[in-house]
Design brief:
By secondary structure, this protein is α+β, with helices and mostly antiparallel strands. It contains 26 helices and 34 strands. A hairpin with a 2-residue loop joins strand 14 and strand 15. It binds arginine and zinc ion. The site of arginine has 12 residues, from strand 20 and helix 2.
Length: about 850
């Protein structure tokens, strides 16, 4: 029963208006839905009316006021079929009863800390009432909520409140109306007793918008940063995209039980509290940055998602890729553009490239799915955003902006496809984007090989490229994609040389649309160093013949900051791959002093941009090295090689590191701004190298920082450095942290995560022990992700233990969550996405764990889908 894009059909019925009436009760909430319906002219005229449900209990059904008998219906918890509905407009009234308290799956209406809240994307609305629960059915919603006034003083839904008052017996009600047609996945309801932070925003056309952030009582001071982020997002979307907010109120609610990051419900965004709550005493620089980015992401969905939504779930990247692109741009404008680019590319490679190289690979727009919840992936989100960024690079800024304007103008109020989106840019750029569509339909990371040759006599520089995309599940054959390669030729003086091709000046963006391409630059007076894929102009894996020496020249001279960073990473990665192979053969690999020097430059007193320098100083991750090795991967050898390099860097750079650590000390009040955060991150990078190999002096510095920390970044980061090295310091810091912050679940999550990801042989035992600790709670997804998720995805040596205990641990937790929260269970199994690349022993043990799960009775569709795909032959 998979769903296929090729089988899309319009709905046979439409719903124009929805009236919902909720009688809240923890175990028996009554939902009355009155739906104004009519046959869809684009549908099948004689069709039965089939509504979606999920674990629903039907109370009654009526059409135009007349109750339907059981014979007229075919009803189950999963569907409601009316064989012969009216063939003109009619009103359908459905009464269902649901149990929010028992809803551990956190989809539909559920309770979290005594509050009611909803999560409907993708298919959660059908857990509230029977409905045409598909994104191309758009209706105007009016929602009446009735509940106990004492327990639920707050009754919220989408749109604006139009009425409220007492409802007798200590109960009260509120009626909300959302004038903007929307699909059911954007519906939201929140009821409870929460504190609020309020502010206002006046839009560019003068609309006065009330802003409200709801959090648990006593947490209001931790909602101020979220509020500032809302205002900044609203302003930015007006300036950057001409998009204005369209209701009189915009609300954000923080809840502590949430399967994902946040949700863009119209006018009423519901957030994981982790992405709302921040105060200088409790949040790290990273928390502040995440909150700002996720608030922006959800707010930007108001146009890219809510006003223009997706026709079907295959088009998910239409809203997600685009909205990630928009939030990346927002952050780039507010903080450092190059640093944001580097962070995004690190993240893309770590998550999306890994996904694309393994059994879970799928196109940005999948063509088939068994469980849509498993497609909220790095490929749909992050690669989806890259494809849009690349389109902008390829057609140019002006055609891109015009295309966005056209898209908003033409498709406002519609449920759209990727074709409709891309057509806007074909129109404004005048380019043929037919081949471009392969980026959406073809999975896998293209690999581009570049070979260069300088001809000193002819004064030409030739760049030859070749692209291949390896087979992925279901796609054995791949065709070339359109790859924009932004390039510069850097002369011996470090300046860019003019680009002359075919006798004329050329733009720096070159198109690689065929399997091979040859570009010959003319009038090249001296041998240049090519700077390839500047600013990471395409999401590809690059293999070039540019030497380490030339790369290190770029590291010091390239006008493109991304490639200055990339150059050092590439040289380090080449070393680490060789070193990991050497470790397995019992050899050593000397570190090129020039690499050490390049890393050392990050700590130069002259270095102005600390955040950028910190990126230069952080080596490729163990995952980066594993991906580069690609097969027969030995995580222990990789860890050892990376550790050896850190130690060698420490030995060579000790004085510079100590000096930088001392010089970068600071005092004064905490501010999470990008410059201050960058300063702290560079200091921590120095500390991390100083403590390499468990160096006693380095650990002593880390301990001093831990104890004297005046902000949460220093405290958490110093604890993290300490926790990498077994010993008394580590235990002292961890115990101290638990003593100080044991009452704060979000801080305990950091404590869980740091222990779960420490590459020490006791990790499995420790995680098992922590699962029994009072601060842990298997029903809270944040706890599960911080402990089990971090272990599976952030601890390569211990998850991949040769004895298989790491796999068994994660698979065991997934099995446990399979029935209570299948979505979270399936997510945890993402840890297995690269299992096929492992050396034979580990591969065998990973497979055993997956086969064990596959054989379990009552597997949820979510877990079954991941296990089945993970095990599918490659
Ligand atoms: N649309 C939400 C966002 O802003 C995420 C929803 C995730 N839903 C899911 N079923 N996993 O990205
Ligand atoms: Zn989103």
């Amino acid at each position: 029963r998979p769903v296929r894009l090729s089988e899309y059909r319009p709905s046979d019925f439409l719903i124009d208006e929805v009236h919902l009436d909720f009688r809240l009760d923890p175990n028996a909430t009554q939902v009355t839905a009155r739906l104004r319906m009519r046959p869809n002219p684009a549908g099948d005229a004689g069709a039965a009316l089939k509504l979606d449900g999920d674990e629903l209990k039907l109370v009654s059904v009526a059409i135009d006021g007349a109750k339907l008998d059981a014979e007229a219906l075919d009803v189950s918890p999963e569907s409601l079929v009316i064989a012969n509905p009216p063939r003109g407009a009619f009103e359908l009234e459905i009464v269902t009863e649901i149990d929010p308290e028992a809803n551990t799956r956190l989809m539909g209406l559920y309770r979290s800390n005594r509050s009611y809240c909803t999560q409907c994307e993708a298919e959660g609305f059908r857990r509230i009432t029977y409905f045409l629960d598909r994104p191309d059915v758009l209706a105007v919603y009016t929602t009446r909520i009735e509940g106990p006034a004492d327990e639920c003083p707050l009754l919220l839904s989408n749109g604006e409140m139009i009425e409220n008052g007492p409802a007798g017996e200590g109960r009260h009600y509120a009626v909300w109306r959302d004038p903007w047609p929307k699909p059911s996945y954007l519906f939201a309801l929140v009821a409870g007793d929460l504190g609020v932070v309020e502010d206002r925003f006046v839009t560019m056309s003068g609309r006065d918008v009330a802003l409200k952030v709801f959090v648990e009582h006593g947490q209001e001071h931790r909602a101020l940063h979220a509020m500032e982020s809302i205002k900044a997002s609203m302003k930015w979307d007006e300036e950057a995209f001409g998009r204005e907010y369209d209701l009189g109120v915009f609300m954000v609610v923080a809840v502590s039980h949430f399967n994902m990051g946040a949700m863009e419900n119209k006018g009423l965004n519901v957030f994981n509290d982790k992405y709302v709550l921040a105060s200088p005493e409790t949040a790290t620089d990273g928390d502040y940055a995440n909150i700002e980015a996720i608030i922006a992401h959800e707010y930007f969905h108001n146009w890219t998602g809510d006003r223009i939504t997706c026709r079907d779930w295959f088009q998910l990247c239409l809203k997600e890729g685009l909205t990630v692109f928009r939030d990346q741009e927002f952050t780039s404008d507010r903080r450092s553009r190059p640093v944001k680019r580097i962070q995004d590319v690190r993240n893309l490679r770590a998550l999306q490239f890994a996904e694309d190289a393994g059994p879970l690979a799928h196109p940005v727009r999948p063509q088939i799915y068994h469980e849509i919840n498993n497609f909220y992936t790095p490929t749909v989100y992050e690669k989806g955003a890259e494809v849009i960024r690349m389109l902008k690079t390829w057609i140019g800024e002006d055609a891109f902006r015009a295309g966005m304007d056209l898209y908003f103008d033409r498709h406002d109020g519609q449920a759209c496809t990727i074709e409709q989106f891309v057509a806007c840019f074909a129109e404004t750029s005048g380019r043929d984007l037919t081949q471009w569509m392969r980026w959406y339909d073809q999975a896998g990371t293209p690999e581009v090989t570049v070979r260069t040759a300088y001809d000193a006599d002819a004064k030409t520089f030739a760049v030859e490229t070749q692209q291949i995309t390896r087979p992925t599940p279901g796609q054995p054959e791949k065709r070339p994609v359109v790859i924009p390669m932004t390039l510069g030729l850097v002369g011996p003086d470090g300046a860019d040389m003019p680009l002359i091709v075919g006798g004329a000046p050329a733009e720096p963006v070159f198109t690689l649309a065929e399997e091979t391409t040859r570009i010959v630059f003319e009038n090249v007076a001296e041998r240049p160093v090519p700077s390839l894929f500047r600013n990471f102009s395409a999401p590809v894996k690059l293999d070039s013949d540019v030497s380490d020496e030339d790369l290190l020249f770029l590291a010091g001279h390239d006008s493109d900051p991304f490639n200055r960073w990339q150059a050092v990473q590439t040289v380090a990665l080449r070393h680490l791959v060789a070193a990991a192979a050497a470790v397995r053969e019992g050899r050593e690999t000397p570190v090129d002093p020039r690499l050490a020097e390049a890393v050392g430059r990050a700590f130069d007193p002259e270095e102005r941009d600390c955040a950028f320098a910190a990126q230069v100083a952080s080596l490729p991750s163990e995952g980066d090295i594993a991906r580069e090795i690609a097969q027969d991967v030995d995580p222990d050898a990789i860890h050892r090689a990376r550790d050896d390099l850190k130690r060698a860097l420490r030995a060579r750079l000790a004085d510079a590191l100590s000096a930088a650590y001392a010089r970068l000390a600071y005092d004064g009040p905490y501010s999470p701004d990008a410059a201050s955060a960058g300063h702290r991150s560079l200091r921590i990078a120095a500390l991390d190298l100083l403590a390499a190999g468990g160096d006693a002096e380095g650990l002593a510095l880390a301990m001093t920082l831990y104890k004297s920390a005046e902000n949460m970044t220093d405290r958490v980061m110093s604890m993290q450095v300490l926790s990498l090295h077994a010993g008394a310091e580590r235990e002292e810091a961890l115990a101290d942290f638990a003593g100080r912050y044991g009452h704060d679940p979000l801080l305990m999550d950091k404590w869980f995560l740091i222990q779960a990801s420490a590459p020490l042989p006791d990790a499995v035992d420790r995680v098992e022990g922590l699962m029994a600790s009072p601060a842990f709670d298997m029903r809270n997804p944040n706890r599960v992700r911080s402990l089990i998720g971090a272990f599976g995805s952030g601890n390569p040596t211990q998850f991949n233990r040769p004895d298989g205990r790491g796999y068994a641990l994660v698979a065991g937790v997934a099995a446990e969550l399979n029935s209570t929260n299948p979505q979270v269970a399936a997510r945890l199994l993402g840890a297995f996405r690269t299992w096929r690349a492992l050396e034979p022993n580990r591969r065998g043990r990973a497979e055993t764990a997956l086969r064990g799960l596959a054989g379990m009775p009552n597997l949820s569709p979510d877990v079954r889908d991941i296990v089945r795909r993970a095990l599918s032959p490659d």
